[in-house]
């Protein structure tokens, strides 16, 4: 039996625990750590999984999933360092933190796999990218991919691409939420009730995403199919281009990538 401990049971940590349970893992195969006792008790009652301290998690678990905020990583690594060895697998879900950080702070030979998930994990639709560290084997990567497949889709990328992944899919849901928020406001501006505007836009977003996923058509082709000559859509597209929406998105994603790089450098 492989025991997995999730260190940090926030939204992502809880979503992973729930996904593993739905994927067939038993509560006895899972552990979690949580700083707030009320939250820990709530999760134990909800899932039947034991909440433990970091030290106990390190002693009992074969796989340690680190899901704390990047700024909280140092005390966690300090606790783990005397307790883990090459027989443990450390999986980092922390934005911007390279595998080399873990390899410096932990004993030689500890395998580390870096993962960039995103928040749709809470509904089983995450997009996660994995990258092996220096000591991680293909078997370790396969184990992590199997674990993440319980909560969405998984790809493997070189670690040099992880900052770009963080900016694109890690932060990506926020860009869509921002766009949907603006479109709902536009509907209200045009005289629609908020509830109607929300339903129109949210279902349009769901349908558009499904078309992208299931038709395999390029986004340009799908957009052109909606864009009739001298019609409403082309007039809207002209305004989007006039206001530099495409350039703004490129700049925003570059800024997110740069911040991811900064988060990693802060621990050098």
TrEMBL record:
- Substrates-to-products reaction catalysed: L-proline + NADP(+) = (S)-1-pyrroline-5-carboxylate + NADPH + 2 H(+); L-proline + NAD(+) = (S)-1-pyrroline-5-carboxylate + NADH + 2 H(+)
GO molecular function terms noted in the UniProt entry: pyrroline-5-carboxylate reductase activity
**Transmembrane residue ranges:** none
Entries under SUPFAM superfamilies matching the protein: 6-phosphogluconate dehydrogenase C-terminal domain-like, NAD(P)-binding Rossmann-fold domains
User: Cytoplasm among the record's keywords?
Assistant: yes
Highest taxon in the source lineage: Bacteria
- Could you tell me where this protein is found in the cell? Cytoplasm
Tell me which residues make up the Pyrroline-5-carboxylate reductase dimerisation domain.
Answer: 159-263
Please verify whether the record's keywords include Iron-sulfur. Answer: no
Coiled coil (residue ranges): none
Checking Pfam families in the record gives:
F420_oxidored, P5CR_dimer
Q: Which UniProt keywords apply?
A: Amino-acid biosynthesis, Cytoplasm, NADP, Oxidoreductase, Proline biosynthesis
> PROSITE patterns per the record?
P5CR
Q: What does this protein do?
A: Catalyzes the reduction of 1-pyrroline-5-carboxylate (PCA) to L-proline.
* HAMAP family reported in the protein's UniProt record: P5C_reductase
Q: Which family does it belong to?
A: Belongs to the pyrroline-5-carboxylate reductase family.
Name listed for the protein in its UniProt record: Pyrroline-5-carboxylate reductase
Q: Which organism is it from?
A: Amycolatopsis thermophila
Q: What is the lineage of its organism?
A: Bacteria, Bacillati, Actinomycetota, Actinomycetes, Pseudonocardiales
